[in-house]
Amino acid sequence: MELVVTKTLFLCVLFTVSTAAPLQDAAVEDGDTSPAVVDRCAGVEFDAITPNEKGKTLFFKGDHLWNGFTGSAQLSTLYFKELNGPVNAAFRMHNTENPDDHDHIYLFQDDKVYSYFNQNLEEGYPKQIEEDFPGVPTHLDAAVECPKGECMTDSVLFFKGQDAHVYDITTKTVKTKTWSHLPSCTSAFRWLEHYYCFHGHNFTRFNPVSGEVTGTYPKDARHYFINCPNFGHGGDRKPLKCSDVKLNAATTDDGGRTYFFAGPIYMRVDSHRDGFHAFPITRAWEEVNDGVDAVFSYDNKIYLIKGDQVYIYKADAHFTLIEGYPKTITEELGIEGPVDAAFVCPNENIAHIIQGNRMRDIVLTATPRVVGRVVPLPLSNIDASLCGEDGIKIFRGSQFYRYESPMILAMGRIAPVPVAITSAIMPCED
């Protein structure tokens, strides 16, 4: 992980986080604060960290918590009124097969566990930890969810000392591993498929299966997970007005992950479970520097178009450049560049390539590529395009135009009424 270094004022104010800090609404609700609680920017060893069911991250310390990445500490009982004293660990349940548990927040206190949803304590709680999580020890140090695909099964990692107790949610069995190379975690946090052990005001990223640590750690959390003046990403910057947004590209991959690109930065906005996330493009696609012109997804691959080059990556847990790429636009798509925008709709095999005020349809199942129809568009100066279940969005500046289908877009001769980009689409101030 490296800090995001932006190149324009737009990027500085839109993406005010580092590569490991979610960009989200961190407004703090009104509530009781205490001057006796240490300022977390002065360095805090958190008791527990967990996102809630709405994607807001809660940082616990003593009888207080911080709701989000900025603001003052508040009494935990303002959110979880039944709590009496500090918590030892916390996590958000991932159990899609059981909606009664999925996205519930579990808080651990000595030998008891509390289950909350929308800040309401579930009936029958608190319970003894053994009753809900047999085999898991009491007086825990930390806990973190680990969905299937990142762990072998939907699991929870419980930490106590140097031991990690891996709890299988389905079988209710525990396997204990000793990770003596990992610092003793006072809290743990899963963020965007990565796992972090917090200790003191530092953190160490680890593999949730092996406990392996790669990279240079520990790192100071104030550079990444907390908005603090004079630390890294400049947490005192204000977010961009939605009226100033300008994108370069957008796409949704076959896994349902949606990406917006602007300059050298991309932002993943497919889910609000963990808030909004901004990164340098080279973090996911290391061969691509200084931005892209257009992007589309097809057949579990993502196509990044930059200048006269096309980069194709296999879209697994990590993006891997396919051997032999990049290739020229002519070699790959059978047309001359440049390209302003591109999209492929779900379950289709046509790449709709926008150049100026024209759209070319490329048949992706043909080798070599076949250029289908070429149609005029009622718009020009298009920045980006995105096709999903709700239709097509054509972005131009801080607005977008919505079309129900590629056919309606191709047949249209008068542009529809534009819709303003709002905070419901990306993190900006309305």
Largest sheet: 5 strands, antiparallel
How confident is the prediction overall: mean pLDDT? 85
Radius of gyration: 23 Å
Indicate the overall shape: elongated
Provide the spatial order of strands within the biggest beta sheet.
1-22-21-20-19
Which structural class is indicated by helix and strand composition? mainly beta
The helical percent reads under 10%
Report the count of strand segments. Answer: 35
Sheet-strand content, in percent, reads 35-45%
Low-confidence stretches: 1-35, 233-237
H/I helix tally: 5
Termini Cα gap: 30 Å
Features:
mainly beta; 5-stranded antiparallel sheet; elongated; disordered N terminus
